[in-house]
Amino acid sequence: MAVASEKGSLLDQWLAKSAKEFIPLQASLELTNRCNERCRHCYIPSFKDDPERILSQDQWFRILDQLREAGTLYLILMGGEAMLNPHFWSIAERAGSLGFHLSMITNGLLIRSEGVAQRLKDVGFSALTFSLYSLDPEIHDDLTRVKGSCEKTKRAIEFCKDAGIESYVNCLLTSKNAHTVFELYEWCVERGLDAKVDPVVTSKFDGDLEPTLLRATKDQLREFYLERARRWPNSKPKGFANQFEEYVCNAAKGKCAVTAYGDLLSCIEVREPLGNLAKDDFQTLWNSKIAEKWRNIKFRDLEDTPNGKAYNHCDHCPGMSCNEKGKAHSPVDFINELAEVKANL
């Protein structure tokens, strides 16, 4: 089991190699802003698509062709809820035919039968990541604001697992569900599922701070990491050695993202468009000054970082900081607090 592990995967190694050559090995496609849940922690400002800007099937096909030509291998479909895009199945089929390693982040509410799960398998999905925040329906459904969503997501996981699709669980650690995450871990272990619990709740992309009110407290963070390390000793955060001269992230290097309207982004969190792939050439945008700006941020360029050993646990995200405080070169307070917790376990 890879539950609770922070060790680098083969994908991480490939991403590191591709980053040196600016090959976008991994691309995330936001097929739509629409969603059938209303998660309290969601970073999307609006769950509506602008009818004047939504892309046609052919425009999505053009984007897929450009990404494949640029060297993208791993394609992640997401939203909103990706399956709400009216062209979802044709986009997925096209991606599968182009040889992408196809995956999706989903709440699973539209995977209502074995037949839907099998169709996902048949069109080429290699992996699905399900958003599940607690086994307690009251907690999960309160976070998603959709009654019955917990049981529907669990059922979808079973359908896809039975269909032979590699399935993962992604859980956001919040002040509301912190006391239930290890029950969720155990449920995943029993079913042979890999699980990731992420404590980083971000603001909305437009700077709205409401989601950040759900962030786990310092005590909850400490208890989470201590208990996780007790169960899985290799999961204890190790930090990053000698990161002063390192680039802070893989944005505009080994990965990229595309919005529901075709805007090419350095990554999901960085919302400054490089241009629009529905009409512009990928390589022209990828070699632009905007892309260069985001890909060249190093730890040495940062301000307001934590001191001492916490510095090497500072997992700064320029996009997150830009969205939340308007400063790409300054970690948000929560990231520094998280670094302090990890450094002092």
Q: Mind sketching the topology for me?
A:
Layout: H1 10-20, E1 26-30, H2 57-70, E2 74-78, H3 88-97, E3 101-106, H4 114-123, E4 125-131, H5 137-144, H6 149-162, E5 166-172, H7 181-190, E6 194-198, H8 218-231, E7 255-258, E8 263-265, E9 275-276, H9 282-286, H10 289-295, H11 318-325, H12 333-343
Parallel strand pairs: 1-2, 1-7, 2-3, 3-4, 4-5, 5-6
Antiparallel strand pairs: 7-8, 8-9
List the keywords.
345 residues, alpha/beta, TIM Barrel, nine-stranded mixed β-sheet, 9 strands, 35% helix, disordered N terminus
Q: What is the share of helical residues? A: 25-40%
Beta content: 5-15%
Average pLDDT level:
95
- Lateral arrangement of strands in the main beta sheet: 6-5-4-3-2-1-7-8-9
Give the terminus-to-terminus CA distance: 23 Å
- Rg from Cα: 19 Å
CATH class annotation = Alpha Beta
Low-confidence stretches: 1-7
Query: What name goes with the CATH superfamily?
Result: Aldolase class I
Specify the structural class: alpha/beta
Give a short account of the largest sheet: 9 strands, mixed
